[in-house]
């Protein structure tokens, strides 16, 4: 990320601590986001969408039901991210906003890069890259794809609201479109 974007997100972290949650720590949030990403991506891959209720917003869940049913098995397998296969995580946009009723929200977009061994073509257009790792002799190769995903987490900070983060956007470029 650019230095300006890094500085902007750090400023928003300070605002979150000052005006929303004095205990907010980006490191803890990132650990929880990685875990949520891994669980949700695996449930998507397994078509267990009913288990996503409460983790994912109702609007996103409805869209996912339509998209998942259209995916090939290989593309659906590529959605799954084991937590140990997440190579890199970074924040995208961080926002603090109020809705028309005066409720206060925080939204954090997280970007994940993960390795997946799904049987995808070597040349998947877009952001997908292919790595071949050789174990033993030259005839034994295991392909790993470096894939990206964007998940947006939202939490309401209005007094009396549940202290739960909900996923309000899920993007797996070139896989889940």
TrEMBL record:
GO terms for cellular component: mitochondrial inner membrane. One of its GO terms (molecular function) is ribosome binding. It comes from the Eukaryota. One of its GO terms (biological process) is protein insertion into mitochondrial inner membrane from matrix. This is MAIP1 protein. It comes from Anseranas semipalmata (Magpie goose). The gene is Maip1.
């Amino acid at each position: 990320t650019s230095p300006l974007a890094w500085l902007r997100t750090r400023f928003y972290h300070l605002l979150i601590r000052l005006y929303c949650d004095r205990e907010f720590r980006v490191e803890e949030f990132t650990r929880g986001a990685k875990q949520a990403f891994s669980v949700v991506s695996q449930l998507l891959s397994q078509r267990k969408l009913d288990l996503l209720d409460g983790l994912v917003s109702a609007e996103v869940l409805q869209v996912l039901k339509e998209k998942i049913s259209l995916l090939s098995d290989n593309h659906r397998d590529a959605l799954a991210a084991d937590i140990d296969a997440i190579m890199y995580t970074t924040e995208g946009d961080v926002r603090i906003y109020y809705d028309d009723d005066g409720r206060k929200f925080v939204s954090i977009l997280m970007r994940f890069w993960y390795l997946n061994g799904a049987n995808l073509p070597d040349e998947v257009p877009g952001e997908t890259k292919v790595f071949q790792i050789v174990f033993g002799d030259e005839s034994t190769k295991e392909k790993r794809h470096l894939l990206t995903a964007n998940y947006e987490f939202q939490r309401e900070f209005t007094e009396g609201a549940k202290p739960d983060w909900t996923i309000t956007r899920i993007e797996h470029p070139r896989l889940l479109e």
